[in-house]
Amino acid sequence: MSKNKSSESVKVVVRCRPLSRKEESNGPAGGIVQMDLRLGQVILRNPRAPPSEPQKTFTFDAVYDSSSKQRDLYDESVRPLIDSVLAGFNGTIFAYGQTGTGKTYTMQGLWLDPEKQGVIPNAFDHIFTHISRSQSDKQYLVRASYLEIYLEEIRDLLDPNHGNTRGLELRESPETGVYVQDLTSCVCKSIKEIEEVMNVGNQARAVGATDMNEHSSRSHALFLITVECSQPGPDGRKHIRVGRLNLVDLAGSERQAKTGVQGDRLKEAAKINLSLSALGNVISALADGRSSHVPYRDSKLTRLLQDSLGGNAKTVMVATLGPAPQHYDETLTTLRYANRAKNIQNQPRVNEDPKDALLREFQKEIARLRAQLNHRRFRSKQKKEQVDGEAWERDGDEEEEEVEEEEVEKEAEEFVKLEEQRLEKENEAIREDQFLLAEEKQKLLGENEKMMGDLRKRQEATEQLTARYKAMESKLLVGGKNIIDHTNEQQKMLEMKRQEIAEQTRREREMQQQMLIQDEEAVELRETFTSLQQEVEAKTKKLKKLYAKLQCTKAEIKDVNDEHVRSRQELEQTQNELTRELKFKYLIIENFIPPEEKNKIMNRLMFDPDEDEWKFKNITRKSSQMKKRPASAVGYKRPISQYARVALSMGTRSRYRVELPIKNIACITWNLIYLKSAVKYVIQLCNLALVHISMKAENIMLLELDMTPPNTSALTDGEQNQSPTLNNSPTNNKGICKSRSW
Ligand code: ADP
Ligand code: MG
């Protein structure tokens, strides 16, 4: 399956948006971000630092300033990646940055303005144009899925019930890597269809307003496009290549205090920050190269991006910045993240002939339907020729086959028509025949009617089969067929020129960066001096340079420390928030849930290492453990009902004066017990949900609960034995302790 197995680093590009109107009106401070497009450098000015402090410089694969066009970014940094996906590689583009810096603008842009369309619409256009221009022996199947990670749950944005159902589960397979189970996937035949899929998902996306961005995305969104391409290989067999493209629009990495959020929004922010810090940890671990453990499992986001970061994928990260001075800290953090991500090495390879290729299934089904259809048609044709008295011979030539197929279809239709006419005529002749008895006539007419019915049924079945066949076939896109834009040669040339220019710019930048590095290294070279004066001058220059470098490094160390302290404070704040919530839930558990119920629930807890979370075992009741109905108390005096007692005291002869047999009393008692247990069970279910939510909500759960075996009570005698034993689970009898660091 693997080909081209070589490693390549994650491409990191940085984009800075223009100052917003609100920021401009805040003061004349101007932007703090400067960009050198030629060198691919970002120069960041600290608005709080004295002018003597050196500015911070970061170098990336490409940088785009506030005047950059969507098209420039696409042609230069995204187009090569989409080309790789079309060739069968996995590809990921993700936008990372503070809220309101242009992640969604970069990924989606303004759909109605062709100049301002973002990466996603441009990628749609690119993919379908490529398919229409490819050779006619290629067959494509394009599928799209759309999901979001909201409050650490994966939601299928194409499922109309996604808000009501439980989050989807992540699974891992050696073939496809990490994938989402039961995710809706729509086959798309055109740009219009895939855009519609995107629109449906966008409407379902969780969006909430914060102070920093009115339409802030409150979730991480992932649009997944799978392009399967089948092409005959040199061995004559059809080979399938599968390229998967992840288009990721992350939620913002805002500071909670700055966004002015509270309540649910604060909870969202906490989750977003947590998953982003998990992403940061993964990036750090990968960039470091020395750490043996990469914490992919710390969040759903990092698990989903597992292949894109350090795995089988080509990845482009677009780090977005805002130029406003008040966001200096966040801008610096984003740049540091991006700078670290440059060091991540991926091992992309072409996915060839994977077992789960849907295209193969489609091809098989189409071939089956076609064979079925041909069989039917040829049978009709044969019959017609028998009627006509012609001999029928089948020609095996492929090219002629299609022409012949049409001919056969026509002939089959003709045969049906002729047969109908013939039967009609026969019917008429039978009706007019005066020598036949009425009974015989009826019989013959009946036979003909039956034949006509069969004929129609066969015809209907063939039509249904044809419709199914055509529907299946239409889902496969064939290269060279949709050649509307082939006519527009000029546009094609223009695109190629643009691509060439983009490639040239990229290479030029790379060379400039190389030269810069070599320049710096040249300082180290031994120099020869003609006079002492010259040596002093050269060494002073060198000293100055090194001193400036030292200052930069010192400032860097201070910054990193500050950042560390800041992020620790933030995490502490989040932890406090979560601990408070946890305490609140404990309070509910301690005060409203009977201890034996709590223990029963705790006994059912088990740790699922695949899912990396705590789950409940199902209650399985063996038949021997079934509760027995209480035996009736033999010998007791039969009690009478309250009503009967009252009626008796009143002296009326009441038909209600029935002394219930003890058996019945026992029955009622049993029902009461049952009712009570049912109520308890409902309470238990509610509690289960509550505890479950609390566990899922806090990834850092710290449970130290009493796990002594549950007390036996009269009503729950049998249940004590019914709880599964948990010797192997991490929840042994001493108590549960789940703690996680993030
Ligand atoms: P994010 O997704 O990062 O929270 P948005 O993409 O929603 O931010 O952008 C916030 C605002 O900034 C939007 O109104 C958007 O139109 C504008 N914007 C972002 N980037 C640019 C850009 N490069 N050029 C012009 N406007 C931009
Ligand atoms: Mg956004």
From TrEMBL:
Alphabetic keyword roster: ATP-binding, Coiled coil, Cytoplasm, Cytoskeleton, Microtubule, Motor protein, Nucleotide-binding
InterPro entries from the UniProt entry: Kinesin-like_fam, Kinesin_motor_CS, Kinesin_motor_dom, Kinesin_motor_dom_sf, P-loop_NTPase
GO annotation terms (biological process): cilium assembly; microtubule-based movement; mitotic cell cycle
Cellular localisation: Cytoplasm, Cytoskeleton
Coiled coil, from the record: 484-581
SUPFAM superfamilies, A to Z: P-loop containing nucleoside triphosphate hydrolases (SSF52540)
Extent of Acidic residues compositional bias: 395-405
Matching Pfam families: Kinesin
GO cellular component, one term: kinesin complex
Basic and acidic residues composition bias: residue spans: 383-394
Region (Disordered): 377-405, 712-742
Keyword Kinase: no
Transmembrane segments: none
Entry annotated with the keyword Cytoplasm: yes
Domain Kinesin motor positions: 9-344
GO molecular function: ATP binding; microtubule binding; microtubule motor activity
Binding site for ATP: 97-104
PANTHER family: CENTROMERE PROTEIN E, KINESIN-LIKE PROTEIN
Family: Belongs to the TRAFAC class myosin-kinesin ATPase superfamily. Kinesin family.
Protein name as annotated: Kinesin-like protein
